[in-house]
Amino acid sequence: MARADAVADKVTFDAPDRDTLALSGSLTFATAARAFADGSRALESGVQTRLDLAGIARADSAGLACVLGLAAVTSRAGRRLGVVHWPEGLRALAEVCDVETLLDEPAAT
Predict the structure, then answer these.
(1) Of 50, 54, 48, 53, whose CA–CA distance to 64 is shortest?
(2) Which pairing describes strands 11-17 and 50-59: parallel, antiparallel, or unpaired?
């Protein structure tokens, strides 16, 4: 059983287009620190302005902290990181914490 949990507690990154960094897997206490480190490196060396969470199967408060941290990394690089395809539970947690507007993708003008 531990092996199945180890496989489930993994987050991976992909860049489906120039503007997007896509995450998939579990964004939880078990993966958030590594996800933040890997995501920070990707965002610091890239030009992404969108974080796509469509592939996230599980997330918790550490996952939300990771997403907020990635937004801060992008902000320090002079960009705004919009988050798309929120998992329902993570969106609800962001709303309770009153941070969802910091992370929503800006409306097209």
Answers:
(1) 53
(2) unpaired
